[in-house]
Amino acid sequence: MDRIYTNHRHGERRIHIEIDENEIEDLLDDLAGVDTPEAFQSTKDLLRILRESSSAFANDRSRDAQEATS
What we know:
The protein is α+β, with helices and mostly antiparallel strands and about 70 residues long. It is built from two helices and two strands, in the order ββαα. Strands 1-2 form a two-stranded antiparallel sheet. Strand 1 (about 5-10) and strand 2 form a beta hairpin.
């Protein structure tokens, strides 16, 4: 996570974090224990985003490997 941006404008205080592909599985491992029905919705959303991204990147790697051998 080399790039982290913060927005400090009134009414728009938020962070933007770029997560490298190789960091996603580590984050999923670390957050696995917090995936409970009692977790905040934002935690559940983050886990969903990480899982979907992990799956999409795995598909991309598979497609890249197939193209490389074609």
